[in-house]
Amino acid sequence: MSLRLIRQGLRFHNGLYFSIFNAVNKFPVSTHVHITGVSSYSSQFNLKNNFTRHFASSYNKNKKNETTLDNKSKKEAIYDSLKTELLSKNRVTFTGVQEYLRLCLENQELNRDDTILLLNCLSYGLPNVAKVKKQEMTSKIWLKMSKNLMQDEQVILNYLKSCCLNGTKLDHDKFLIEIGIKPSENILEALLETIAETGNISETQKLIEEMKVRGVPLNESTYATMIRCYGIANDLNGVRSVTELMNSAKIEVTSKCNSQLIQAFLRNNEEEIAIKMIKEHGKWFKEQQLLQILTTVMLFCPKKEIIELTLKNFSSDLIQDKEIYGPFRNICSELILHKKYDEVGTLISCLPVPAYTNVDDLDLYGDFAMQDMILNDAPLEAVMKFVKQLQMEKRNEMALRTVTGQALRYFSPIVNDLLEALSKEEPLKPHYFWPLFIHNSTIDGEIGVFKTLELMKKFSVEVDHDTLTFYVMPQLAITLKNVEKGVKELEAVGIKSKNLLTPLSVHLMFQQRFNETLHINALYPTKLDTRLLINPLVTAFNYAKSNDKIPLIAHLVKVFSDKKVDSKYDIAGHLFSILISNTKSKVENQKIMQLIGELSLHGVKISKIAGEMLQQHLADDMNDEQRKKYFSDFIDRKVSLPADELIESHIKHPRDMNLEELECHFAELESKRLNTRGVLRRLLQLNVREKRLERALEIKKHCDKEGVDLSPGMHAAIFDIYIKIGRPSEAATVLKRLMQKFPAFVIDEHKIIDYAALLAKNGDFDEAQRVLRMRASLTPIKGSDTVGKNIWNLLNNIATTAPTLKQLDQSENHTKTFFQFLVQNNYCTYQNSVLGPVIKEFLNKNDLKSAVNEYVTLAKSHRLTPLQRQLMTILVDVANRAELQSQYSISKSEAQDMLQELIKATSAIHGHTNTNIAFIVSLAQAGTEKQLRKVLIDPNARFSPDVLKKQCEYLNSVGRLDALLKLAKCSRGLGHIHEQQIYNMILDTLIQNNDYDGALNLFDQLLSDDEFKISNEFTRNLANLLRRNNIELPTNVALHIKQ
């Protein structure tokens, strides 16, 4: 439980950081709503460090230091973000859509992809935005379209969908004139639905008549649209007339019409009829139809009985999920827009209460509704009522903290009331107020900072070091011009001098106001947390451009040393340990020696270990006399360096450790019962990278046990583990969780391709395509050569699996189809390396004719020759063996003809010389000695001996010793390649493999050939191999050596 609470606290903390980021950079707040997926502590820590560096210089310099993307890059980034969020959550931010439209219109004209994305966002991606705003933007997009886009059917359908869902009123005659093309049946049906959605009966009937004239028949969809129109217009007589018309035309009333009838009755207070119909037909409705009914129930008849009756027809997996199902969230957002806050609570109360486990987050349930309430300025009473409901029903016992975080993030006018309510349940933390410091200072300047401090005082929240350092001091430039007066003003708002003096000293030192630092510390005898002053001292020393600053720094160290809280803490030694770890030049060493001298004058001493480190570092710059002068009275055995600083100086950081060191470090931490989460993260990633998959799974179990908050990279690593060990279902679960939790994280294409390969291996080609298509839709696919091996593996799995699947059409080459899909999505291009599996599928089906035809086609159309040698070898083999002719259902003459066709196509690409080499190798592998000898002695068969030698090396590397022996024997006396060289090559491989039996067999085989004389080098190498294995030399080998 404690780990979970820590994680939830960090998430609340993290949300505040992003609200601060929004305020500082003056971005529209809602553009950062979805950044909160980042929840690792390291991210927060780094962000805080960024603020430290930012404020150390000056808050007012923020605009100058801010870096911005050029418009093109910014547009691409927003496009990727919108598309990702739309796919993963069906939700985007309105400001994001506005900004993207603005960037698009800077180019004067919208392109097709931009238009479709924007219209999709406006259709279903903005459930928490008023329809009027979406209507205005939709109209703006339509007016900015080019004529070509207005005539694109897909664009038209997307536009009509946006108009329909947002209730836009259209003049159908004017619209049809505007598009300037003959409308298809799909366009007319979409236009009819759009007009019907406004409840305009006469316009709907007019369009139906026009559709009849155009030859578009009335179907179930048309009648369902008519029912919807009458229902929206509150005309039940009209609804009944449509059903009578359907009965007279003997058209069956299906689920589509029934769902619209139920909605019409609900809109017109005919609850009993609606309930009866839901009971009779509910189980037949599709999910989209049930969602429409549920939306209508919530807007017009939000009674618990009807809600529960409707929910029963949804899949139990959707209802019983620990998170509220996405479409239900959208319904809640629409209710909030209509200010129906009680109805939101009613719908959520009808859902089962989640059964949480120890690793589940308790503060996420209903967070979207609280966010929408805050963004839409819901009254405090409605917000508190909803929060109390979540807490009482034990759906989200931390709801008040969550909604307070939302109010702080978006600077809601009710934030003070929520803070007051939260203060009655739990002590408020200083960082809750950080967003308010930024927001209030932006509006009211330094007075705004003091207002926030007054608020903290009201709630009895003690202002801590971080708050003062990062969010108070940097924004009080005017107040702190007179430091002494500024301190009194801060004390007046409840800040105690014991909390104030350390961060004030940090602030003044970062501004290089050293004399004022000394002055204020002389006025106040308060003790200092000197560990927090080390970084400012290091910065001051590093930026001391002249030696006259060194005495001042030494004076500061003396003052801080006298006022330190921990009397045993060696502040001077700590300072030197950092300085020497960063110092390389002798010039800086001279400054260090000067600082030692100045500190000695002030009577400051350092610990023994710090002195030893310092003497060792300065050994080359000091003689014995200087060493005695500087260090004789500079050591104090009563002070010491902090243990963590000693460890930091001598032990590697886990990020710099190798796998073995990390394992040892993990074992040590575990044995001491210390925090192992950081090491576990690193271990998981490295074990996956090193392909130590079993150990990676063990580490994952440790992560689950320790409740490690998995980052996107760790999720991706786990995803990779399951792929590599061949568990597609577990990989799918991790991928789904990754996309839900981190929608902005884009997994690299290598892993996705490998996952698709695993799916293909299991025969799930459709799912493999879906996953690849999804990845291609997120960001542009690079399709570089680095994924070539992954693509080949994917296609090879298809080529191997497809012939075994009876449900597939075996007349189709499924590998070829999949390859074309990959090319269309930019995963690869036409290359020999990835086209091999296309040929292989034909071979796996024993369809040699199609394989050769495909090869010839690729050679002619793309100048590519995949599986050249393999095909050539098979054809040679088939021509020589009757059993293979039967297997491939071709005759010897057909095989020979195909071989000639293959050679001709190959020669056109690679030339006759290289083709001859390939043919020779094929004959060596599958032909007879007579055939091979005939080609080798043919004067017209030109080839390069050097290339042939390389091919021999290839055959040797793949273990085709039979082919090499045949080639060696057939080349005897021809001079193309020396026979003995081939035997030496074979023997070298046998020696490398320590295969002395194979080497002896080769020797015996050569010895039995009376026409061949074995070289002395060959025999000596064989003898050395046998002696190395302590084997007595056989008689024939010994005799041959003597000879």
UniProtKB/TrEMBL annotation:
The record's Gene Ontology biological-process terms are:
regulation of mitochondrial translation
- Pfam family membership, one: PPR
GO MF annotations, alphabetized: mRNA 3'-UTR binding
Q: Which GO terms describe its cellular component?
A: mitochondrion; nucleus
InterPro entries, per the entry:
LRP130, PPR_rpt, TPR-like_helical_dom_sf
What is the protein name stated in its UniProt record?
Answer: CSON007878 protein
For this protein's source organism, the top of the classification is: Eukaryota, Metazoa, Ecdysozoa, Arthropoda, Hexapoda
